[in-house]
Specification:
The protein is an alpha+beta fold. The protein has 17 helices and 23 strands. The N and C termini lie far apart (49 Å).
Length: 494
């Protein structure tokens, strides 16, 4: 039974179960493949803790931002058929696309959206596209939202036209010229969903189902909640209590729904289906006898386009480790209410896998990384992302001190502390305090917690003043206290 150790359980399975219990993950499912052989496929813990219902490889979970890799595959399929070019300006397919900076907007291409290099800053759109679900969601607290500049009374954004109108009228500044820097953008992928719909002449969801999911044999992968709930095994969702940083998880059956950002992270599936998806990357774009994507287009997805962090790049819908102990690794994770997911493929080695879990913020990726490391003959705890070694910072640490905030609800305060920095999160996306950052290079710092390391990089303006920090794959701008006070009333410019 999932959640208990079975006779003959492998070292890897014991490691994963210990990790799950130590990190208090209610339930997860993991699949690993090498060539055409399934190495491991099983659930750990529970899809419903109260009912003691076990998680299995046929339990439906959300996959959140892992959806973006499917979107990239669909867009490249359209390009293969001559319906568009990846180098096309976005306005060629979405004439209504506008931002506060028209000249830069005209230069934003589909490639920039695919690689998160458009210059769009983190915005609160997801809270407006999912507004109808949020109003029914037990963990959601509109008071917390308003405190960090998210308007709980904002009208729902239900259509692509609504998303385009929001991007045209919201108060924000682009981060820089297109292609200059990586900053993760859910809005960018929402726009790609609109491009697929306008170009194909079909609803975005239907195009993805007909051109990718069904040909790949993924019969239990869907967007629609009504269809999902007909499946025999669907997980309960677990989220932290917003008012208690280390509080218990809150169980909920309310799945976040939206229409205009579905391309950013709304697919649901189970691990058995995901193993078919992993196989597309391991077999040069094929799923059995079906050709989903040409090998040349697959290579375009896998090619590093822009740096995310030292040793980590982003391609089209995929994060890329060009040299993970001599291996190319492509992967993508996802986090949303009740979702913590990741898949990884090593196309040159013919191995890959996926993990799905039912609590947002859960480090379920550790289970997948351990599985990939096992297949490569590396120690199970070898981290995917290596953080540079620490060293003494050459300058004054006070220049980094201050408040940093984004429209997605990421707010943090940074202060100097004992040859390093102290980081306190006060927003929605992250709830933690007293984190210590140690210097690892010029404007680079590392956070070590729970056996993992995270890299933080600060960016300076043309005068050499620190103006933003890269965390959570986003550039988060430095803010003055008067600016932050205006957030409650909608007066802040993101």
């Amino acid at each position: 039974m999932a959640g208990t150790q079975r006779p003959g359980t492998s070292e890897l399975e014991r490691y994963i179960e210990r990790c799950r219990q130590r990190r208090r993950i209610p339930g997860l499912a993991l699949g690993l493949v090498a060539g055409d052989r399934t190495v491991l496929a099983r659930g750990f813990g529970f899809r419903d803790v109260a009912a003691r219902a076990p998680a299995t490889v046929h339990t439906i979970f959300g996959i959140a931002s892992m959806t973006k890799s499917f979107v990239a595959m669909a867009l490249l399929r359209l390009a293969e058929h001559g319906a568009l070019r990846i180098s096309d300006p976005v306005v060629r397919h979405l004439p209504g696309f506008r931002t506060p900076e028209p000249r830069r907007t005209a230069k934003i291409t589909l490639a920039h959206l695919l690689s998160h290099s458009s210059g769009l800053p983190p915005l609160p759109s997801i809270y407006y596209t999912a507004a109808r679900s949020l109003s029914r969601d037990p963990p959601y607290d509109p008071r917390v939202a308003r405190r960090v500049g998210i308007d709980p009374d904002h009208p729902p954004i239900d259509t692509y036209e609504g998303l385009l109108d929001y991007l045209a009228t919201a108060r924000y500044r682009l981060l820089g010229p297109p292609g200059a820097q990586f900053s993760y953008s859910n809005e960018g992928y929402g726009l790609l969903g609109a491009v697929i719909e306008r170009t194909s002449g079909e609803r975005f969801e239907r195009y993805l189902e007909e051109e990718v999911l069904r040909p790949a044999g993924m019969r239990h992968t869907m967007f629609d909640t009504g269809i999902m709930l007909r499946e025999p095994e669907v997980t309960t969702l677990y989220s932290p209590n917003w008012h208690r940083p280390k509080g218990r998880l809150v169980a909920s059956q309310e799945w976040w729904e939206d229409a205009s950002l579905r391309a950013a992270g709304s697919l649901r599936t189970h691990v058995a289906d995901l193993m078919r998806y992993v196989g597309i990357y391991l077999h040069g774009g094929r799923a059995g006898r079906e050709r989903i994507l040409s090998s040349a287009s697959l290579e375009e997805m896998l090619r590093p386009r822009i740096e995310v962090a030292p040793g980590v790049a982003y391609g089209y819908g995929l994060a890329i480790l060009p040299d993970y102990h001599g291996h190319l690794v492509a992967y993508h994770g996802g986090g949303l209410k009740g979702v913590a997911s990741e898949f990884a493929v090593l196309p040159r080695d013919g191995i890959g896998g996926a993990v799905l879990a039912n609590a947002d913020g859960a480090p379920s990726h550790l289970a997948l990384h351990a599985g990939i490391n096992r297949l490569l003959g590396l120690p199970l705890a070898t981290p995917f992302e290596e953080v540079p070694r620490g060293r003494r910072h050459p300058g004054p640490l006070g220049e980094y001190a201050g408040w940093y905030a984004s429209g997605e609800g990421i707010w943090c305060r940074i202060r100097p502390q004992r040859a390093g920095l102290r980081l306190d999160f006060r927003g929605i996306e992250y709830i933690d305090q007293g984190l210590r950052l140690r210097p690892v290079g010029d404007d680079g710092f590392a956070l070590r917690k729970g056996g993992e390391s995270r890299y933080f990089r600060f960016l300076r303006d043309e005068r050499g003043k620190v103006r933003s920090v890269h965390l959570g794959w986003r550039w988060v701008r430095r803010r003055s206290v008067p600016e932050l006070r205006r957030a409650r009333t909608g007066g802040i410019v993101w």
